[in-house]
Design goal:
Elements: H1 45-54, H2 65-69, H3 90-100, H4 103-119, H5 137-147, H6 150-164, E1 169-173, E2 176-181, E3 184-187, H7 199-211, E4 216-220, E5 227-233, E6 239-250
Antiparallel strand pairs: 1-2, 1-6, 2-3, 4-5, 5-6
Length: about 250
Amino acid sequence: MAAGGATSLGTGGEGGLPRTGNTAGTGAGGSAGVGGDDSGTMTTDAEFCAEQCAATPDHYQFPAVFCEDWQYPSSKRVAAYCGPLEGTDCASGCAAKLSRMTDACNAALRVAIPCAAKVYPHGPAPATMSCFLGQCASDLGHVSAECNGFREELAGARARWNASGSSDYTFRWNAWTVVVANGVASVAEPGFIGEAPTIPALFDHVDALLDLGVAPVITYDETLGYPRSATFKIPCGSLLDEFEVSDLALR
C-alpha cells in the first residue's frame, strides 16, 4: 500500500503465485491434446483424462468438479467446461470438455486436474476446512484466469479505451485525484507517496495479475472501457489487491 491508503500496483511478493506442472495444452475444437506426465511423455486429451479419472472415485468428474466445489471468483460466472454431459463417464466427459476449450484454458486445466485428483481420493472435506481445494489454489487461479473470459473482457475494455484516443484526462483512483497529461500521471493532492497510474497502466496491472493466476471480480465502463472497480483474491485465500476508479473526465 502507498501512503494514505492508495493501492500498490506491484505484483510481486504475496501475488507471486507460482505456476506448477506441465502447461502445454490442446487446441480448441477437438484437436489432438498435447501435454504430458512428469517423464515428458506426450498424451492426448483422452489418455490424460483416463489416467486422472482412474485415480479418483467414480462419482467425481473432471473438470466439472471445479464447478461443484470451487466457486471463485463468483458463482455467477460459469465456465464453458461446466455444462453437463448426461450419461458420460468421467474419462469420456473430461476429454470431450477439454477438446472444446481454448489452448490456454486447456493448458490450465491439465495442471489443475492432477492436483484435484490427489485431493479427492481422500474423501469428503472436514467441516472445519474452509476450502477443500485450497492446496490447488495457484493452479485454480490459472483456470479461472484462462477459462472464464477475463482476457477477452480485458481486451474488449482496452479497445474501447483506445478508441477514445485521449492521453489527457483526470479521475479518482481510490482516495486520490489523478491528473494525466500527455500520458503521464500525477496526483493532485499533497502527501501521496508512490507512482500514480494511468488507465493503460491499470489495464496492464490487471493483465499482470491474470498472468500470476489471480482472477478478478472486475467492472469495466461500458462506454470508455476503463476499469471502474476491481478486487483480486487468491483462490481460497486472502485479498491481494483492489482499486476503484470514478469521476473520469477526458480533457
